[in-house]
Write a structure and sequence with these properties.
alpha/beta, Rossmann fold, single chain, disordered N terminus
Length: 277
């Protein structure tokens, strides 16, 4: 179990000390209906979900992954399974007996690993801008080395280019600046630890074994995890629908309204099916 420290912040978030030794920053939004647990991309904090969560009236939980945002610094390497254990600990700590998991990129991999570990806790999977593996592994080792040797500044520009289209950045400079600051604020150690998780990720068996409903969200302009990777996941999953949004890699920001609408429709369908089941 966890000990919750009395250090709630102005935005309502709380730092939670988990039995695993991780100290994670968690934010809970109140509401009715089936809850959603949001899982972040590499180099992002829970702010990547602000727009989507603000459009939803239901209960949701988001947290900064180890070594990211306001969570504790991570040193050494970690695995996707480690991140799934963190997410399960957060579910326990916030009273989420069962939830829809909504993960983007690394968060999608985390969601698949959690579904394999504790399928009874997962009402459905929303896997956005992600894949079952992220080759080549050497690319992630190189990015980790760059972060550890010079910090994140060298990686900010190329990352932002992949995350948001040029047209969106030009039309939304304040949001682009906020995302740039989010990337730059990631700890080098945390970034490198999670690069190791992506380098070794192999979630094909986990996705294929998950019997529940899956919503796949891809970005039409996503060069990091192209639509073809989502189509591969659709072929693996037992029950999966695929939606392609007009966005690059971080579709939860660039296509915020459409993302929230698709997510909400998916969860409402699950609620209806549950009520009739």
């Amino acid at each position: 179990m966890m000990d919750q420290r009395a250090d709630e912040t102005a935005d309502g978030g709380t730092t939670m000390d988990l039995a695993s030794g991780q100290s994670l920053y968690v934010h809970v939004s109140d509401g009715d209906g089936m809850p959603v647990l949001f899982l972040n991309s590499l180099a992002a904090d829970l702010g990547m979900w602000d727009g989507v969560r603000a459009r939803m009236a239901r209960r949701s939980v988001a947290f900064d992954a180890r070594g990211h945002g306001r969570s504790g610094i991570e040193r050494g390497e970690c695995s996707v399974d480690d991140l799934a254990c963190d997410a399960l600990d957060v579910m326990d700590a916030t009273g989420l007996d069962r939830a829809v998991l909504c993960g983007l990129s690394l968060g999608g991999a985390t969601a698949m690993a959690l579904a394999a570990k504790a399928p009874e806790r997962v009402a459905g999977l929303v896997l956005a801008n992600t894949a079952v593996s992220f080759p080549p592994a050497q690319m992630w080792h190189d990015r980790a080395a760059t972060a550890l040797s010079g910090g994140l500044p060298e990686l900010v520009g190329p990352t932002l280019d992949r995350w948001l289209t040029e047209a969106y950045r030009a039309a939304n400079p304040a949001t682009a600046d906020r995302v740039r600051a989010m990337i730059a604020g990631t700890s080098p150690e945390g970034y490198a630890a999670c690069c190791a998780a992506l380098a070794a990720a192999d979630l094909g068996p986990a996705l294929a074994a998950y019997p529940g409903p899956v919503l796949l969200i891809a970005g039409a302009h996503d060069a990091s995890t192209p639509v073809a990777r989502a189509e591969q996941m659709q072929a693996l999953a037992a029950h999966a629908d695929l939606v392609v949004l007009d966005a690059a890699h971080i579709s939860s920001i660039e296509a915020e309204a459409a993302f929230a609408d698709r997510l909400e429709a998916f969860v409402k369908t699950l609620e209806k099916d549950h009520a009739h089941g």
